[in-house]
UniProtKB/TrEMBL annotation:
Keywords: Cell wall biogenesis/degradation, Hydrolase. Gene3D superfamilies: Peptidoglycan recognition protein-like, PGBD-like superfamily/PGBD. It comes from Hyalangium rubrum. Residues 1-10 have a biased composition (Polar residues). Its EC number is 3.5.1.28. Residues 122-261 form the N-acetylmuramoyl-L-alanine amidase domain. Residues 15-26 have a biased composition (Low complexity). This is N-acetylmuramoyl-L-alanine amidase. The lineage of its organism: Bacteria, Pseudomonadati, Myxococcota, Myxococcia, Myxococcales. One of its GO terms (molecular function) is N-acetylmuramoyl-L-alanine amidase activity. CDD domains: PGRP. Belongs to the N-acetylmuramoyl-L-alanine amidase 2 family. It is an enzyme of class 3 (hydrolase). InterPro entries: Amidase/PGRP_sf, Amidase_domain, NAMLAA_amidase_2, Peptidoglycan-bd-like, PGBD-like_sf, PGBDSf.
Length: 274
């Protein structure tokens, strides 16, 4: 079968509209040229198997890129994966073009990749310098109250001598009181994994509004915000999972602190940030 060979002068590179794109008659293979090849390429562009830029480098020529696109189409539509545009491929393409054009879904975000969640700036004067220490620990607390406004005011009061980097209210709102790079006053005397250390100097402190009784549930909104915030901080400062701890885990002497309360769901948090 003879095929009319198109030259660059006779092959205008015009993108076909969705309504004008149809499947060409069967019987095309690598090396063919001409209007039917252009029609095939336009169909492959319409179906997202080729880009217009790829087509424009060989519009009207059945080259390696067109063959690769045909093979991908064949594989996706369960017809022989030969690269030859025959009767079965023609029928599958005709059917595909008759239906709605499906845009390939965007890739899912990679697990464990977090952006810093929105925070409300509520500066506290209660901080000092870290003294050159790197951040490698995250300490979780309960505020020992169900009054978020009162807890926030207390940590912003210069006379209280306490603060944390973040506070998560019962509605999930996150307040930032101290810049990450500064040393907040949330942990007091402490140790990490049995070794005495300046916990405040190396950690980020997060207060969760809860009375700490073990009977008051931590809210879904709090867990969601805490997961996003802790995941971000873990990622940003390369904090090991075993350095994400409660105040009760680092306070000395042992038993001095009980937070976060016994009903805090550590498994839910760890699953969300792992």
């Amino acid at each position: 079968m003879s095929v009319t060979r198109a030259t660059s002068a006779t092959a205008p590179r015009i993108a076909a509209t969705a309504s004008s794109v149809t499947a060409p008659a069967a019987g095309l293979r690598k090396g063919d040229e001409g209007p039917r090849v252009k029609q095939l390429q336009d169909a492959l562009v319409q179906l997202k198997y080729m880009t217009r830029a790829q087509v424009n480098t060989g519009y009207g020529t059945f080259g390696p890129k067109t063959e690769a696109a045909v093979k991908k189409f064949q594989a996706d539509h369960k017809v022989p994966n030969t690269g030859y545009y025959g009767d079965l491929t023609h029928a599958a393409m005709k059917k595909a073009l008759a239906g709605p054009v499906v845009t390939p879904p965007k890739p899912e975000p990679k697990p464990g990749v977090f952006k810093k969640p929105p925070v409300i700036n509520a500066p506290s004067p209660n901080f000092n310098e870290r003294g050159g220490k790197d951040i490698d620990t995250i300490v979780l607390h309960h505020t020992a109250s169900n009054n978020g406004a009162g807890d926030l005011a207390h940590m912003r009061n210069p006379a209280s001598d306490v603060s944390a980097h973040y506070m998560i209210d019962k509605d999930g709102k996150i307040y930032q009181l101290v810049n990450d790079q500064k040393r907040a006053w949330h942990a007091g005397a402490g140790e990490l994994h049995g070794v005495p250390t300046d916990v405040n100097g190396r950690s980020i402190g997060i207060e969760i509004v809860n009375d700490g009784s073990g009977k008051t549930p931590f809210t879904d909104a709090q867990y969601k915000s805490l997961t996003q915030l802790t995941g971000y901080l873990k990622q940003e400062y390369k904090v090991p999972m075993n350095n994400i701890v409660g105040h009760k885990d680092v306070a000395v002497p042992k038993g001095r602190k009980s937070d976060p309360a016994a009903n805090f769901d550590w498994n839910r948090l760890r699953k969300g940030i792992s």
